[in-house]
Amino acid sequence: MAFLSVLTPVLVAVLCGLVALLFIYPRKTVTASREQTEGGSKAESKRASNGRPWVDQDLEDDTEVTAKDEEEDDWVDSNEENIPHVPYSPLRYPVEKMLERSQEFYALMNQRRTVRFISPEPVPRDVIDNVIRTAGTAPSGAHTEPWTFVVISDPETKHQIRLIVEEEEEVNYRQRMGDKWVRDLAKIRTNWIKEYLDVAPYLILIFKQTYGILPNGKKKTHYYNEISVSISCGILLAALQNVGLVTVTSTPLNCGPQLRLLLKRPANEKLLMLLPVGYPSSDAMVPDFRRKPLEDIVLHI
Ligand SMILES: Cc1cc2nc3c(=O)[nH]c(=O)nc-3n(C[C@H](O)[C@H](O)[C@H](O)COP(=O)(O)O)c2cc1C
Asked: Which residue intervals define the domain Nitroreductase in the entry (predicted)?
């Protein structure tokens, strides 16, 4: 008994210590995780208030990373070393004709505007196919052609896309973009409501393939895939302009993973651009922008 009565204060002290630990530890964890979350969102809003755009992580080009991290055996080198070279002699125009053509093409492209009011009027499918064929003529790093164009005309799929984009865009406008970006957009009067995603006869989603997958499952490096696909998108915009169709060049922030899953695209494909395509609606309006004159954009040395 004497032994027990000596031990009792020690036991009580140990028990008190345990109870105190039980109370303190979870609180510390909560505080730490709250600090982490607050720190994260503070960093995000600081980035936004600095005027630096919130970066779409899904778009990170992981070509180099993946090439380094994965087993050497998963990757192949080019197997096209012996490709024949053939003569190339395209049309050559007299100088006056060149001038005339350059002016005409400039006049055509200078008419191009981003149009957010698109008519539901059907557009021939063959025209869209030719526009995409044209986009597929773009140059690409080591001729890897790292693009996939997903053309959607199915109304239900278009609507699913609208739901995804509008949900993310609302968060973009309210939280991710920050005051400066939202103010900069005020002049073009956009918000997260994207009616044209339901209305336009076609949505073209352009994916960049961060690496290629060969029929034998091996991976192939796609050099400069984002630059290559961006050039292809530029040619696509010119091809649309050439046939009198309009679009909205859009890069829906943070929608890539959901849209990729919806469209069942593989993980090596990242959404680069979403283009609703159609005729302009009869009451379409655009901001009255002026373009920089030549002397402000060119430097001859
Ligand atoms: C990379 C890129 C992303 C764009 N993203 C959007 C967008 O998400 N929503 C939108 O309405 N317009 C978007 N635009 C269109 C621009 O607002 C438009 O090009 C600009 O205001 C100039 O107008 P213009 O195309 O009529 O010359 C984007 C343009 C580019 C090049």
From this structure: 111-279
Does residue 125 have a pLDDT over 80?
A: yes
* Nearest residue to 135 (alpha-carbon basis) of 61, 196, 200, 206: 206
Written as six digits, the tokens of 160 are 């699913």
- Taking the CA of residue 203 as centre, how many other CA atoms within 13 Å lie in the half-sphere pointing to its CB? 27
Whole-angstrom distance, CA of residue 24 vs CA of residue 32: 12
pLDDT at 228 over 80: yes
Q: How far is CA 36 from CA 29, 30, 50, 128, 153, in A?
A: 10, 10, 21, 48, 44
DSSP letters spanning 79-120? S-TT------------HHHHHHHHHHHHHHHHT--B-S-B--
Does this model's pTM top 0.90? My answer is no
57-71+93-297: CATH topology is NADH Oxidase (3.40.109)
CA of 115 relative to ligand 1 center, distance in Å: 9
**What's the rounded Cα separation, in Å, for the pair 170 and 199?**
20
Å from CA of 24 to ligand 1 middle: 52
Annotated domain spans of the chain: 1-30, 57-71+93-297
**pLDDT surpassing 60 at residue 229:** yes
Query: Rounded to an integer, what distance in angstroms lies between the CA atom of residue 248 and that of residue 279?
Result: 12
Phi and psi angles of residue 282, each rounded to the nearest 5 degrees, phi first: -65, -25
Ligand 1 binding site (Cβ under 6 Å of any ligand atom): 113-114, 116, 188, 190, 248-251, 286, 289
